Amino acid sequence: MATRKEIDGSAGVPQFYGKELRFKREEAGLTLEKLVEGSFFGITYLSEIEHGHRRMPVELARHVDLVLGTDGFFQRRCEDVRKAKQGAHAAYFAGVTEAETRARSISEWSGTLIPGLLQTRAYAHALVDTAHSLDTPEEVEAKIDGRLGRARLFGNPKRPEYWVILHESLVDHPILPPAEMAEQLDHIATLMQRRRIVAQILPWNGPTRALTELPLFLMDFDDEPPLLYTEGPYHGQTIDDPALVMRYRKAYDRLRAAALPPEASLTLIERAAEEYRHGQHRS
Length: 283
Prior knowledge:
This protein is of the alpha/beta class.
């Protein structure tokens, strides 16, 4: 028999919210299965909400309020939980950082910037400092720490599977001094050498220009539909419509087919890092 795990409601807003949800559910004499009955969500999903590991979607909050007769309480608290889990990340990106910790696999394409999951502190600082020029030093550091903290995903040697395609310009047009750019490329190469990530470089003359306008961040899960995230400079969009996600996945597969093989990509990255280190790289 599984041991019942207690919820520490003092740990934060999501845990407090989840503890209240379990209290109300048990007070009503309902199992997890009975509470989600009639919704599109599963019992594992609801259990993780009760423990503060996931945000409750508004649609599920409405369902719970209706079943438990809680007069809109859980729907009203959705925004509080969203803000609490957002941390230093932009509001439109907070859901992505939460979802990526549950992902079985992540496929990413970037044509303009090295993705956040792969950034060194120097690279992240250059981006955050430029994009948020009015932030205090403390706010800048909080954003950088939040971004670098995402890379804890790679502490697990197997999960998630991470495949990234980078445009060649990210290697040849540095936004950092040579020594720091060499460090950034070394970081990517090390992850590849450890077989923790698969990376490919899309050449300048790749026959996929129409597909390269937007970054793509695709996530697959064990017990959830796939998600796609894409963004502009100060906005982002999460797409969960399976038909649309499939269309973007086909575009990603075409980019993957046009990119250099992983082995050739690693050689290109290592060579560029060495050239930056010795001041020989011509950008």
